[in-house]
Amino acid sequence: MLHIAICDDEKAFVQHLTGLLNQYGKETGLGIKITPYYDGMELIEQYDPTIDLIFLDIRMKLVNGLHAAERIRRMDERVGIIFLTTLTQYGLEGYKYQATNYIIKPLQYARLKSELDKFVERRRKEDDPSLVIANDTGKYKVPLKSIRYIETFNRNLMFHTEQENIICYKSMKEMERALRDNDFVRCHTSYIVNLFYVKGIKKLDIELISGETIPISQPKRKEFMERLADYWGDML
């Protein structure tokens, strides 16, 4: 399933692009979910982190596509963005926001198909699983490989990622079940660690490659060491 957002203030164009995307889905057999937005601010305020690709018009009346892309990148560093424009210089400026590409209007099916084929193939190669985290400030799509560890924090959870720390309202047991098959291990009542970041073990301390140290409890040490040995064995 590919979740695609269309953000354009021309409703006729949104309908046109929707039809082309549905045509692509029928031809390829790929399931496509389409979510329309009619302004950049609507996209920002109602952003859904399950979106895989955004077709984003640059010239819109209220909030233009470049400003919207800047805000979206703060919430989701992985989503693909294809700018829609009538002027090439706007498209080139869009690369500052890690745009996948830009398409000059009017949009032809052959060009759309080419861009989608490349995006789908690149997505299959990357195969980068992510976790959606929701809290009072919004929703975040976080690549699992960017999460160093998770700890309890004021009856909630704190995700320590490569980019920032994010509060999550789920329980430690829920996270342990959700992440167990992705090389995350519960090393302590209050901690889950990503084995990728483990540098070494000293007694009841886990040293991370980031320089941080987190505890490992005595009751969980045996299982943790077994999981770590399996992981390092696979990596060697």
UniProtKB/TrEMBL annotation:
Signal peptide: none annotated. Gene3D superfamilies: 3.40.50.2300, LytTr DNA-binding domain. Residues 131-230 form the HTH LytTR-type domain. The modification 4-aspartylphosphate is found at residue 57. Residues 3-120 form the Response regulatory domain. PROSITE patterns: HTH_LYTTR (PS50930), RESPONSE_REGULATORY (PS50110). One of its GO terms (molecular function) is phosphorelay response regulator activity. InterPro entries: CheY-like_superfamily (IPR011006), LytR-like (IPR046947), LytTR_DNA-bd_dom (IPR007492), Sig_transdc_resp-reg_receiver (IPR001789). Keywords: DNA-binding, Phosphoprotein. It holds the Pfam family LytTR. It comes from the Bacteria. PANTHER family: STAGE 0 SPORULATION PROTEIN A HOMOLOG, TRANSCRIPTIONAL REGULATOR-RELATED. This is DNA-binding response regulator. It comes from Bifidobacterium lemurum. The lineage of its organism: Bacteria, Bacillati, Actinomycetota, Actinomycetes, Bifidobacteriales.
